[in-house]
Specification:
It is built from 5 helices and 6 strands. The protein is an alpha/beta fold and 162 residues long. It has one domain: P-loop containing nucleotide triphosphate hydrolases (Rossmann fold, 3-Layer(aba) Sandwich). The structure holds guanosine-5'-diphosphate (GDP) and magnesium ion. Belongs to the TRAFAC class TrmE-Era-EngA-EngB-Septin-like GTPase superfamily. EngA (Der) GTPase family.
């Protein structure tokens, strides 16, 4: 079975940057580029001989400020489709209301969840991650998607669960 990983989180936390790392593509539009699709985006990834599928969610225009109803719906569909959910949060910004909203939904979804604390470059990653324990979704994992820190070990640990 090929595991399906959904990337969910409020706009601007780095989902598309991580999607591109996982798929080694420039496929998902990263903020700073224009593009308006709000659909889910599917990509193929591979770690050595292990294939996986990754789903990017949310608006990709880069101009979204909050999690609107359509983006929330896309996230919920992706969560349903996934074998495991990576819930991305912003280690520079801290916990927001949109994070709490998604956390409340994820606590009720009967899926394995990894809280991924992105943008931990420029801070102590473990201290940045510890802030997100209070989401109540287990031990947060620090990464920097743009610097490619922690990305490989996150993926290895995730795929080891299947
Ligand atoms: P999305 O809306 O969740 O898909 O977020 P994007 O992947 O479009 O990234 C939003 C912004 O955060 C872009 O300007 C990225 O370059 C930036 N970004 C993504 N990952 C990191 C990171 O690890 N560290 C920092 N400092 N910026 C990041
Ligand atoms: Mg995006």
């Amino acid at each position: 079975m090929t595991p399906v990983i959904a990337l969910v989180g409020r706009p601007n936390v780095g989902k598309s940057t991580l999607f591109n790392r996982f798929t080694r593509s420039r496929d998902a539009l990263v903020a700073d580029f224009s593009g308006l699709t709000r659909d889910r985006k599917y990509g193929d990834g591979r770690l050595e001989d292990r294939p996986f599928i990754v789903i990017d969610t949310g608006g990709v225009s880069g101009y979204e400020e909050g999690l609107d109803a359509e983006m929330a719906k896309q996230s919920f569909v992706a969560i349903d489709e996934a074998d495991i959910v990576m819930f991305l949060v912003d280690g520079m910004a801290g916990i927001s209301g949109d994070d709490q909203f998604l956390a409340d939904h994820l606590r009720k979804a009967n899926k394995p969840i990894i809280v991924v604390v992105n943008k931990t470059d420029g801070r102590d990653p473990d201290i940045a991650a510890a802030d997100f324990f209070e989401l109540g979704l287990g031990e947060p994992v620090p990464i920097s998607a743009s610097n490619n820190h922690g990305v490989r070990s996150l993926l290895e640990d995730t795929l080891a669960m299947f």
